[in-house]
Amino acid sequence: MRVSRTSIMFSNLCALLLFILCSVFGDEMKSVSVTEGDSFTLNTDIKVQSKDMLLWMFGRQETRIAEIYNQNIFMYESNESFGDRLQMDNQTGSLTIRNIRTEHSGLYKLLILSNRENSYKRFSVIVYARLPVPVITANSSKCSSSGSLGQNCSLWCSVVNVSAVTLSWYKGNSLLSSISVSDLSISLSLPLEVEYQEKNTYSCVINNPIRNQTTHLNITQLCHTCAGMSVVMLVFFTDLKGLKCTLMSPCSVSFLRLCSVLWFY
């Protein structure tokens, strides 16, 4: 059953009673972290009896959002951000939030009034946005040229519209560099330089306290020489006491270290 803002389920006197009860009885705090779009449940860990009253409130203003009284469930419309996402279990009073959004982060309070005892519980809920997959790109303006050997490949790992995350480069399992952002929704980029034909494994990782996303670097695919720089080299030397050296290989100039040197009589 939904109740409008004009509901007088609790009078001002009852509201005062709630304040007194919340001040007198001890409370417990539980921290919950969840990813945006998921569904999760705030468990009461009790079994509701016929005369029990359970009231769920949200935020600093303690806005009423759901209630059980005389075994009847009431869903308040005072906080429109929840829409039809809320569901309350009539056996336990546990509150389920479906398809949760980041704006649902905050403090949830539960007041339990019964013939057995009165209690007060609090839940601190943090909703993290879903993590994007990091994108690795190469700086094409810095490709290998014919005059350089072992030149580095310049790379960037980027993510857009993120908050409360850390972006990191890893070489194997070793952290190379990282950058973090707190509450602002911004774009992040982190540079890295590797050598052409390097055999080490690199990965870019974005993470928050509950999840991570990883993109592995494919050096062969992203790091390559400038177009049109592939050559065939044939060099002769005849001044070494009758020995002749031939350097020959159809290879890119950035891979000269791989070219073979053959000595023969």
Automatic annotation (TrEMBL):
Keywords attached to this entry: Signal
Entry superkingdom: Eukaryota
Keyword set includes Signal: yes
Protein name: Ig-like domain-containing protein
Signal peptide: 1-26
CDD domains named among the record's database cross-references: Ig
Species annotation: Cyprinus carpio
Record bears the keyword Signal: yes
Pfam family name, one: V-set
Domain Ig-like positions: 134-220
